[in-house]
Amino acid sequence: MINNGFLLVGASSAYTPTGSLFSWGNNNYGVFGDGNSGYPVTEISPKLIGTKKWKQIAASTYASMGIDENDDLYTWGYSSAGVLGNGTQSTFQTTPVKITSLKWKEISVKYESAYAITLDGDLYAWGANDLAQLGDGTYNSPVLNPQKIGSLKWSKIQALQYGAMGLSENGELYTWGYNYYGSLGNDNLNEYHEIPTKIGTKTWKSISANYHTCFAIDTNDDLYSWGYNAGIGLLGNANAYGSVAVPTKITTLKWSMVSAGGNHIGAITTSGDLYTWGMASVGVLGNNTSSGDVYVPTKIGSKKWLTLSFGFGHSLAIDDKNELYACGADNYGQQGNGSITGNVLVFTKIGSEKWNKISAGMQYSLALQ
Length: 369
Fold this sequence. Notes:
Blueprint: E1 2-3, E2 6-7, E3 19-26, E4 42-59, E5 63-68, E6 73-78, E7 92-98, E8 104-110, E9 113-118, E10 123-127, E11 143-148, E12 154-159, E13 163-168, E14 172-178, E15 192-209, E16 213-218, E17 223-227, E18 244-249, E19 255-260, E20 264-269, E21 274-279, E22 293-299, E23 305-310, E24 314-319, E25 324-328, E26 344-349, E27 357-360, E28 364-368
Antiparallel strand pairs: 1-2, 3-4, 3-28, 4-5, 5-6, 6-7, 8-9, 9-10, 10-11, 12-13, 13-14, 14-15, 15-16, 16-17, 17-18, 19-20, 20-21, 21-22, 23-24, 24-25, 25-26, 27-28
C-alpha cells in the first residue's frame, strides 16, 4: 500500500521506495558521508549528501551503511575494528564506498560489528569478533571484509553491541555472540554462542535491539522483550531492574514495529499509535519531561505514525503524512531544526518535506527524502 508515493509501514508490497540521502547532527568520524570529519563538525539542518538514490540506511557509532537503488552496499565513517568492511581498520572513509559485488537487501551495524543480507538471503558479517559477535564459530581478531555466515537463509538482521540476532526466511529467531544480561534469549546469562542458535519455536516478523536489550514482534503482532533492564525499565515489564533471559510478552496491545535507542524504547501499534518507555533524560521519550523513568509502554499524543528510529540521546519518527519529527538532545544539532536549542521534550516537526526512511545514530541521523 502506497501513500503519497511512500510505502506504509506494515503494508504488503514488493515496492521499496528510494530517496536522496540527508545527514545532520555531529559528523565526528565522517559518518555523514559528505567528505568531512572532525569533532565537532555539526549540521543543524538536514544536509543533502551526493546525488545517489538509496533504499536502506543504517546509522551507528563509528560507521554508516547504505544500500543504493542498484542493491549495492556502501559504507563510510571510521573503520574501528574493520567495521567498514573495506579491508582496513582504524582508517577514515568520509564518502560512501561500495564494498563487494554482491547485491543486498538488509543491513545492521552497531559499535564495531556489521551485518548484511544478500538478495538471495545469505548472511555476511564483518568487524570486531573478540566475543563471537560475527557468528562464524570463532573468537578471533577483527574480520576486515564481509564473510558469509553459515548456509541458513535470512530475512532480518539486528546488531547488538556484542552479538546479533536475526530472523530466518521462515521467521525463526536466532541469536549469537556474548549473552550479556540474557540478551541472547536462551534462558542463560553471560555465556557465548559462537554460531547462530535458534531461540524457541515461535515465528516472528520484526526485531530491534540496543546494546543488550532486545525486542521482537511475533506473527500475532505481540511484543516481547528480553535482556538488560538497566535500572530504568527498558524491558517495558513494569520493573526497573532484573534481567530477563527469554523472550517475554509485554502488554496486550498489538504492534507493527519497535525501535530500541540507547536508554529509551519506542513502538508503534497496528493502529498507528506511538508508545515510549525507559529513561526520559534529555526528553527522548517525547513525554514533555527530561527526568524520571517510565517502566511500561506509555502512549504519546494522538498523532498517527508510520515508522520511528531511536538513537543514542535523540528520537526520530515519521507520521502518517510522511513528515519528520524529532525530540531529545540537541547539543550537536540532532533535532535538525536549524538551531541548537537544548533539549526538545516533545516530538517536533522538522521542516515540511516528505520522508520515507530514518536512522538515528550516535549524535547524528540519516534520512531519505
